[in-house]
Request: fold
Amino acid sequence: MQPNIQSKLPHVGTTIFTVMSVLANEYNAINLGQGFPDYSMSEALIALVNKAMQGGHNQYVHMNGLPLLRERLAEKITALYATNVNAETEITITPGGTYAIYTALTTILQPGDEVIVFEPAYDSYIPNIEINGAVPVLIPLVYPDYKIDWELVKQKITPKTKLIMLNTPHNPTGAVLCADDIVHLQNLVKGTGIFILSDEVYEHLIFDGRKHESMLRYPDLYERSFVCFSFGKVYHCTGWKLGYCVAPPALMKEFRKVHQFNCFTCNSPVQVALAEFITQKNNYTELGSFLQQKRDHLKSGMQQTKFKPLPSYGSYFQLYSYSNITDENEKDFAIRLTKEYGVAAIPTSAFYKNGEDNKVLRFCFSKKESTLDEAVNRLMKL
Ligand code: PMP
Ligand code: GLN
Reply:
């Protein structure tokens, strides 16, 4: 008899980000697909990591993360969101935001639980739910502004609803939650046992003077929330894969039970360096305007093409409609764009379980202006 592997994720292939980046490399295309900066990160932060390594910070740090880094994060949270979280009991450093999300879901979900997921959804959410034996309850964000239809959410709540997943600023659409959404959410979960997982990895990448509506601002929401963050997005180093989760003590206690036997503890010298660097607030307070300029640069260049922008208020991304160029489906068009025109983008249909296709592609603008300009030059040929 042969060992016969039974897939835990039978319907899952390779993530679209890897597929498109491999294709972009193969065809030497400009990669506006996968979300990562092509400009360099801070030399000062790199020097601090070197210093930490040379200073001997090369062994395991505490499993919950370097205490000083957690303390500094707690101070940052107080300054930004006017709340006190306890560094000892409410913050855990993780190997990236994706891991924090997976760990939070694994901590909370039991087989058969229902999880409200808004689509388009970041590609790891649904597989993370399903691998835990839980059931994603899919709710479309309303095209073309991708707002939440709270009436519909109310209708989808059942006694089995365990958790609502939120992502603001939102990947792939750049939509952000507003004060009004928070009121709906507060009314919806009040008096229920529903948890919230809030993916806030783009907390600083928010534009046009909008305010980041973190769950950390609202005690009645935070008491039931796991809030997930990524240093990769804040310090232009997505390859570092370091992030953190913030949750109230009772939730965090359970999160740590899962974490300690999966990753246990994260890279030490990087945490030592970040604990020092994080005190320079301009590194994150200026991020929104830095990325907003890039969004605007791409948008003004794209006016010379046939692509039509949809609004983006945050994240690395803006969706563009191509419905007046072709009626090809998003995936085929994204592949053709990469192969024939040398620009890679992400088909938004990849963020829908049923592959909904509105003829929109996601473009990543966290790139050098010269990269964005060259992409526009190529797209003008369409
Ligand atoms: N959530 C969203 C919406 C993201 O776009 C990303 C970026 N990859 C992550 C989570 C996770 O980030 P990390 O690389 O830190 O795992
Ligand atoms: N978050 C990034 C994106 O949306 C990529 C992360 C990944 O490749 N998994 O493009």
